[in-house]
Write a structure and sequence with these properties.
Layout (H helix, E strand, L loop, with lengths): L1 E4 L3 E5 L5 E4 L14 E5 L2 E5 L2 E5 L13 H8 L9 E3 L5 H4 L3 E3 L5 E3 L5 E5 H10 L6 H7 L5 E4 L3 E5 L2 E5 L8 E7 L2 E5 L7 H4 L11 H18 L2 E3 L8 E2 L2
Parallel strand pairs: 6-7, 7-10, 10-11, 15-16
Antiparallel strand pairs: 1-5, 2-3, 2-4, 5-6, 8-9, 12-13, 13-14, 14-15, 16-17
Helix pairs in contact: 3-4
């Protein structure tokens, strides 16, 4: 099993829910609105079972080339968008799901990874559509609900294929998913926005931005213990310095 971070870069976000690019070498966080959070946006590619599996898709951010940054990142490791076989979506907040699709000039949804199957939980999709903006692109989600490439998960936990498991854990959103990858003696784990940064795993706190902050805190504590005992490789979506970490 191989893991590749696919960083779109650092961004700040405040109460407006708008992600603003941030150059950690030049920009001053104090010049951003009070309370702005500094986060990395970092999907992951996991190579397992001879497949290329993408975990979350980022903002759909386009760099200076005008191309999707995630495409540029994949190209650097020799993979085309058509080479992705599965896309696993932890939840549908725009910074995790913005790269699922692009809208053409007529507003038609075009899936960015044309050969992939996209795994999204029905409860999260229904919640996202009912909740709407600013965190969710609800109108666009309606368009792809019935796309044959979208594989709607209905069980609260299960196996996507041998070696890849999912479970509704809640916490950050009511129906947030976590994913476990197992190949041989290796275990890799993705907790999305319930476990977004290494520093958050080592202290107890309740985040105001979570749907259920206490549950997120308890999950982080349990996962960290399991990671230490079973030597999980943990993937941190919003960590600038620690993309993959094994206790």
């Amino acid at each position: 099993m191989k893991i590749f971070p696919l960083s779109e870069g650092a961004f700040t976000i405040d109460a407006t829910k708008e992600f603003v690019p941030f150059d950690v070498n030049k920009d001053d966080l104090q010049q951003r609105p009070t309370g702005s959070l500094l986060v990395e946006i970092q999907p992951f590619l996991v190579q397992i079972n001879s497949e290329n599996v993408l975990i979350d898709t980022g903002l759909g951010y386009k760099g200076k080339s005008g191309k999707l940054q995630i495409f540029e990142n994949l190209k650097k490791i020799g993979i085309e968008p058509s080479g992705i076989s599965k896309v696993l979506v932890s939840h549908l907040h725009i910074d995790h799901a913005g790269g699922i699709f692009t809208e053409d000039a007529n507003g038609k949804i075009i899936l960015n990874f044309p050969e992939a199957e996209y795994f999204i939980h029905k409860k999260e999709l229904d919640f996202a559509i009912s909740k709407g903006s600013p965190s969710y692109a609800a109108d666009s989600f309606e368009q792809f609900r019935n796309n044959p490439k979208i594989k709607i998960l209905v069980e609260d936990e299960g196996i996507i294929e041998p070696g890849i498991a999912y479970k509704i854990v809640g916490g950050h959103t009511p129906y947030h998913l976590a994913f476990w990858f197992r190949e041989g003696n290796e275990i890799a784990f993705f907790g999305g926005d319930v476990a977004p940064q290494l520093s958050q795993m080592k202290r107890n706190f309740i985040a105001k931005y979570d749907f259920d902050g206490r549950k997120s805190m308890e999950l982080r504590s349990d996962w960290w213990k399991n990671a230490e005992n079973e030597k999980w490789k943990m993937m941190f979506y919003h960590d600038i310095k620690n993309a993959v970490y094994q206790p």
